Amino acid sequence: MRALTWQGKHDVRVETVPDPGIVNPRDAIIRITSTAICGSDLHLYDHTIPGMKSGDVLGHEFMGEVVEVGSASHKLKVGQRVVVPFVIACGGCFFCQKQQFAACDNSNPAEKSDPSEMAYGYPMAAAFGYSHLTGGYAGGQAEYARVPFADVGPIVIPDGIDDDKVLFLSDILPTGWMAAVNCDIEPGDVVAVWGCGPVGLFAVQSALALGAHRVIAIDHHPRRLQLAQKLGAEIIDFEQVQVREALYEMTGGIGPDACIDAVGMESHGMTPDNILDHVKVKTFMATDRVHALRQIILATRKGGRVSIPGVYGGIADKFPIGALMEKGLTIKSGQTHVQKYTAQLLEMILEGQLDTTFLISHRMDLEDAAEGYANFKEKQNEYTKVVLKPKFRRH
Amino acid sequence: MAKRNVPYGDAPEATRKKANPAAAGIPAAEDDDVLVARSVTINRPRRELYEFWRDFRNLPIFMENIESVTIIDGVRSHWRVKGPAESTLEWDSVVTEDVPGEVIAWTSAEGASVPNAGRIEFKDSGNKRGTIVTATMAYDPPGTKLGTLVAKMLGREPKIQARRDLRRFKQLMETGEVPTSEPPVAAPRAN
Q: pTM for the whole thing?
């Protein structure tokens, strides 16, 4: 089959690789009809996440048609259309039973679990196409994918619903939703969202749906800020404005009740702390640039909440622990427990309460995936979301 | 197991900086043996876990280094295990303690190339999380310190091996399968 493979920093190529097959009884094989490039794929593209091997198939946002099921995969039937969560979860361990699917104890193969146990204290759950730290499973930017525990993750899509409406159930929609849920929004709350990439925009939409009184979105790309504005957010361009002063004034000196970091470890901006972080990352004195998170911790009101859906992998320097403690902030974070939210969010999409198609700026053939990566990274203003479709050109 | 006089608190013996194999429940071990212990919580009843483990022929399903276990009689079995540098180690093992649903202990018979002894304990978690399975092993490593280092690099160092084998046991018992991303079929890749 054809698949997008990682070869090294800023080097991804579509190549012919072997077809996947059923290996374990609960597996299914999916013929992929749509797959997207995620902002977190850019961390792999930039090689800021360790544990990649040349030749790995990328992609963790995908959907398609079930073409084969294993002997113990009783939920899915051949021919059904499904969206596949990026997190691989067994459904039976302590964590899955608490619906903390992104903490599944079983999906990461035993021989792949040592590095994350060493780095984080306990091994991470597995994800599709996201380095050997999280399992080394092949991703879905391909014609076919093997889906382990297919009786737990994939959600069946009714006929007649276009791929573009539901594809983002695989990751970014539940991720934006969980980011807003983690804000514990109360009536009257003002929620500020750093980063108007796909997750930030869905967090804006979700915070409003969950009852936020006002949402303030922060970015520097005009088109992305416009999209946030269309969803109902007030906007701040951090290149034009002092963000903390603006938030102070816009909230009458109280500050946002909850703040969402939808930026993660590759923060932009030309402030002194961020430039220093750049130097430290280049010289291996730190691994994660945390400019946005520092600003968030200072901007959040006393007793407020901080929600971090943005991806971090390592260690940060100059973390404002004093502000965190003295102001009594609550932080919630984590990879998304996708399986917990898919049924509810599919329902909201089908009832017209959530729209995800506004985000898609480009639809491309899988063969052109490398160009999609380069443009998604370099032209963030125009390329808000790239959806890849195998054999798209023939349509 | 008899309650020990522990001046250093409630932590298991094997987590002590200078652990003593006999105090960890392996009386057959020498004081200078390497002691390895690891616990895992498995969301299944302890009787089921005990029974699966007690049929030693099941062990190669989740223990990567075991080539085969042949049952000789009710207490004796013959083990073929991958050693460092493509070698195969073989020995007979004798069950020294067997309490259904609770504990299985063994020691290698006279003349084993890697004298070893250990115990697997199965305890209810007490908080409805299933069974806490604790594997404790003591062994006299083959060859030199360098041999142990090489084995470690190959992933065959017993501590790493025990960790991975227990994870696979948990995976198998909780999910019915052992997850894998082995190329090419389980996880296709270029090259």
A: 0.92
